[in-house]
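Researcher: Sequence recovery benchmark, item below. Answer with residues only.
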């Protein structure tokens, strides 16, 4: 089900757990910012909020899954559905992915989805991760990650799947810390890291499960631009507008030419990838590591 709420002079669409989604997105334009000024009233089911500026064709997708936008089943389904709907919308040309809760872009996979679950459950969960990634990484749209906070693991996966990454300056981290949880990033995630920062740096980063502060991430090329947190959205909109000066078709064909091999490889090896995930995450030693990691997160307080 999808609904609309009018708020702050703008119309927002709420993507909630149940589907299919309805008709075209329609938004009033804010006088001061192209996209960013809406005030949102939210309920627990509003896990993705989408606004689209009809004139420019730029949509902003805000993850809204408190407290830390961890990727649980519901959020993965909402994100995928939202990406697919925007993809089908002929008037949509670009997508900005951000968090409705500044300071945390996305905490990665919801660790509770991997803890004490049956092999079938985690297998189905992993397929939702794969499908969400296929829809974002394979999108014809200009995709821009407006990383307004921490972006570990699955948060980094989302960012890497976009065409360009703008991150908030300050004490925020990004990276693939999977090995710290005794997990191994799958081939398609490792490959995106290699493509972004080069083989040697990616190899080291992946082995030690490095989480980088934003300035180091910029230096490595893991993100493309750093700006003050309050400017992330505005700069993302400006950057998207630059990208939209390039004719859509040539840009999208070029993007697909470079991404098709990895997309095809995952499509071909999807079941094998699911099987590996099932086997690995349900292993006793991995479950123990996950439990210890969860305890560590709780003990932080
Ligand atoms: C060849 C062989 C191949 C084998 C392959 C097999 C295995 C394949 C595995 C593949 C892995 C795929 C890739 C992705 C993996 C992941 O994403 S795993 C998740 C990793 N995430 C993290 O490590 C981040 C953990 N969280 C944090 O570091 C912090 O929360 C934060 C994001 C920096 C935010 O900090 P802060 O604002 O201070 O909030 P907190 O107080 O820490 O958290 C608030 C509550 O949220 C809970 N929480 C945090 N993160 C998660 C999470 N990811 N999942 C579930 N819950 C989370 C946290 O515990 C707090 O809970 P309460 O105490 O109950 O309030």
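Model:
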């Amino acid at each position: 089900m999808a609904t609309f709420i009018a708020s702050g002079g703008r119309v927002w669409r709420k993507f909630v757990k149940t589907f299919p989604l309805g008709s075209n997105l329609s938004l009033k334009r804010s006088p001061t910012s192209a996209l960013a000024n809406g005030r949102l009233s939210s309920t627990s089911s509003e896990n993705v909020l989408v606004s689209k500026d009809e004139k420019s064709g730029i949509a902003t997708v805000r993850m809204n899954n408190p407290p830390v936008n961890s990727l649980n089943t519901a959020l993965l389904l909402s994100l995928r559905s939202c990406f697919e709907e925007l993809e089908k919308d002929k008037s949509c040309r670009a997508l900005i992915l951000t968090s409705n809760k500044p300071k945390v872009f996305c905490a990665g996979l919801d660790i509770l989805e991997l803890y004490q679950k049956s092999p079938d459950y985690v297998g189905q969960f992993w397929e939702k991760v794969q499908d969400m990634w296929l829809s974002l990484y394979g999108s014809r749209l200009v995709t821009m990650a407006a990383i307004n906070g921490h972006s570990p693991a699955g948060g980094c996966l989302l960012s890497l799947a976009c065409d360009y990454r703008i991150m908030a300056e300050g004490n925020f981290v990004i990276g693939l810390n999977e090995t710290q949880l005794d997990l191994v990033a799958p081939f398609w995630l490792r490959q995106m890291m290699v493509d972004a920062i080069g083989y040697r740096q990616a190899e080291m980063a992946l082995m030690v499960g490095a989480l980088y502060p934003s300035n180091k991430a910029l230096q490595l090329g893991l993100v493309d631009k750093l700006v003050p947190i309050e400017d992330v959205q505005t700069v993302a909109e400006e950057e998207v507008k630059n990208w939209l000066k390039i004719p859509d078709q040539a840009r999208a064909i070029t993007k697909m030419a470079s991404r098709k091999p990895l997309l095809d490889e995952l499509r071909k090896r999807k079941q094998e990838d699911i099987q590996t995930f099932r086997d690995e995450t349900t292993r006793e030693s991995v479950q123990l590591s996950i439990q210890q990691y969860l305890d560590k997160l709780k003990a932080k307080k």
